Amino acid sequence: MKSFFKKIKDGFKRTQEVVSDGIQAALQRSPKIDEDLYDEIEAILLRGDVGPATTDYLLTELRARVKRDKLEDSSELSDAMRAIMEDILTQGRAAGDPLSGPESPRVVMVVGVNGVGKTTSLAKLARRVQEDGRTPVIAAADTYRAAASEQLEIWANRLGVHLVKSQHGADPGAVAFDGVQAGKARNANVVFVDTAGRLQTQAGLMAELTKIHRVCGKAMEGAPHEVLLVLDATIGQNAISQARLFSESVPVTGILLAKLDGTSKGGVVLAISHELGIPVRYAGVGEKADDLVDFDPKLFAEGLVPKAE
Ligand SMILES: Nc1nc2c(ncn2[C@@H]2O[C@H](COP(=O)(O)OP(=O)(O)OP(=O)(O)O)[C@@H](O)[C@H]2O)c(=O)[nH]1
Ligand SMILES: [Mg+2]
């Protein structure tokens, strides 16, 4: 499991370089808690893409704790800041694992804008299920591009997972329906429904997403049990508006933040949790099948504001 922690650490190294290194340097430079220090922390959080609203909230909370706990020394700020971040990241988190539940199969729909990492992330999740000794089935409900189901086919073959697909241009709802049926027939534990990328502003395509969701429910009552919205961490604050608009079309139950590796904008996780109240469940930290980590609020907060050695 050593590599697991290493993966998380390496995965958001660039965000850490901006946020945690920045905060540490600021605290060292200014032993006293004063307005200049608050200003500096504010600038660092904004640079890490925490966003104005959440940065504001963090600083207000920080000032309140400094007052309440009568903190004077800047070295005492790290603990307070870490605790506030952890609180933010824990908001709205239901207990349990998005990939397991009493249903059989559990139906997990994966949605998001074009190219954010849906298909890759879905394959990583399917591998997770397999590693737990359970059986996944994948439904290729992205029927827009011929290449989309080919891409899934490569993954499915590589992982040895049953894939339900249809011709290019087929009704994506029908593929989702067949996928759920196949999952039931095969006694699968989890059915993953991959969907085509769409812009949150394309009303017709967003309505189609609502339809795919509804069709899953026709194939199995209560399905889909999980709707994971994949967001691309490299776009920073734009992720917020994507999440808002997707949530208007389908009930998003969790967020998978892909491409956290290689971006300094990982602070957006705080904004997503604070402003949307949707839990971030997973983070994608690379292109390979095992480049996926559970999003752990405590570890992430510790990564942003390290504990004193
Ligand atoms: N570095 C990195 N690259 C990723 C990650 N997740 C996905 N990618 C890459 O992002 C690109 C797009 O990934 P896809 O999984 O095809 O994205 P998609 O959302 O399914 O795309 P569409 O179906 O076209 O909307 C691919 O080159 C992936 O390898 C990640 O966590 N880190
Ligand atoms: Mg795709």
Automatic annotation (TrEMBL):
- Sorted UniProt keywords: Cell membrane, Cytoplasm, GTP-binding, Hydrolase, Membrane, Nucleotide-binding, Receptor
GO MF assignments: GTP binding; GTPase activity; signal recognition particle binding
Name the record gives this protein: Signal recognition particle receptor FtsY
What species is given as this protein's source?
Eiseniibacteriota bacterium
Question: What is the role of the protein in this entry?
Answer: Involved in targeting and insertion of nascent membrane proteins into the cytoplasmic membrane. Acts as a receptor for the complex formed by the signal recognition particle (SRP) and the ribosome-nascent chain (RNC).
Question: Pfam families per the record?
Answer: SRP54, SRP54_N
Q: Write down the PANTHER family for this protein, in alphabetical order.
A: SIGNAL RECOGNITION PARTICLE RECEPTOR SUBUNIT ALPHA (PTHR43134)
Catalytic function, reaction form: GTP + H2O = GDP + phosphate + H(+)
Q: What's the subunit arrangement here? A: Part of the signal recognition particle protein translocation system, which is composed of SRP and FtsY.
Listed EC numbers: 3.6.5.4
